[in-house]
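Before the break, one more example. Copy the sequence into your notebook; we will annotate it together after we see the structure.
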Amino acid sequence: KWSHDENTSGVAYDKLENNGSIIGVDIIESFDEASSMSGIAKLELGVDVDDSGSDTLDSRLAYVGLSANNLGDVSVGRQSHPFTDNVATTASIFEVYGGNSSFSYGTRSSNSLAYSNKIGIVSIDALTVVDGSSGEDNGMDSYEWSASANLLGSNVSAGFADDIVNDISYYGVSAETTLDKLTVSSSYTIKDAATDLSAWEVAGKYGLLSVGYGDKENTGVYTTVGLAKDLNDSLTVYAEAEMADNDGSTVDTQKWSIGTKFSF
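Here is what the structure looks like once it is written out:
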């Protein structure tokens, strides 16, 4: 991507750089032909193709587990957070910007145990982190869950996350609805700490055009606009801009980027 971003002082700078390349492998291996159980594993790495840091490969996901049809999936390792994936980032539809107006505990964590299953129309995902460093005598440092279902043509999710170590909780709901060529995604999240904070975000996509708007309490208001075109099944070109109306004395900023993405 080529980006033209203003920093917190309002000074703009241009940069031509990689925009988050990743590579990985996803494995499902049945026990035998008659078995309903399978071993599952995933390894996903971030690739620093610019060689700008000390690690060319950065661990994103790395887990192993067991899948048992109606009993669900259980896995351990470094995994993504279901509250973040299914609730907090629902309106994060852009390649570079957007997704600023939500609260969540984390994106990916090591030392985690995850469970997922589908019961009727409801998909359940849960995760707990036990990292052994916080001194929590109950074993868990955090836990979270989300429940998702298709209701009246909309994909609706609700979830909860509890940061036990810091005594902070997160709640939220999200929805995504598609009407003909228009897809509208939204989320509403709450950070329950000493002072409760809320955030909401709405994003819509129609053809090439995407528009997003969000308000994160005590942080700012964000407006995002983007164009994206699939040149074939793998190659996408895009252009995006974001305006941030920051709260308090923080300088308001404007940013834009153009870029390409190849998926295989």
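The mean pLDDT is 94. The longest helix spans residues 82-88. Try to locate both features in your own notes.
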